[in-house]
Amino acid sequence: MSRSERSPLLLAGLLATAGIAHFAAPRQFDAIVPRGLPGTPRTWTYASGAAELALAAGVALPRTRRTAALATAAFFVGVFPANVKMAVDWRNRPAPQKAAALGRLPLQVPLVLWARGVAANAEGRS
């Protein structure tokens, strides 16, 4: 299997793992939900976990890959405020935790580009 054939499956695996984590350990995700959103943080945690699982399924299937990968890129942009909140909230934590929170911010760029690359390489059937 070539690198370009593995890439969508790796992205789907990342999304599925993150989606499952939202249900398995929701409290850590609740803490980074921006305060201005309506409803409870747990609702947003579960909704984003469900979205990640749906995106994982869509990216894994060649028929829906292009559309799901574009939606994944948009999703990665959409969750950026949660990463900003985490970085702000963790600014007084020990250096390794602070570094992890700050490191998540620029990580969004390659994730968005990865999802867009998967979409660009997908067959135009979706």
Task: Describe what this molecule looks like in 3D.
The structure is a single chain. With 126 residues, the chain is mostly helical. It has one domain (3-121). It has 6 helices and no strands. The protein is globular and about 45 Å long.
Task: Give a quick summary of the entry.
It is a multi-pass membrane protein. The protein has one domain (3-121).
Distance between the termini: 23 Å
Q: How many distinct domains?
A: 1
Proportion in helices: over 70%
* Overall pLDDT score: 93
Instruction: Give the overall silhouette.
Output: globular
**Rg over C-alpha atoms, rounded to the nearest angstrom:** 15 Å
Low-confidence stretches: none
Give the count of helical stretches. Answer: 6
Proportion of strand residues: under 5%
SSE ordering: HHHHHH
Structural class: mainly alpha
Sheet with the most strands, sense and barrel status: none
Tally the beta strands: 0
Element layout with pairings:
Blueprint: H1 3-24, H2 26-30, H3 41-60, H4 65-78, H5 80-89, H6 95-121
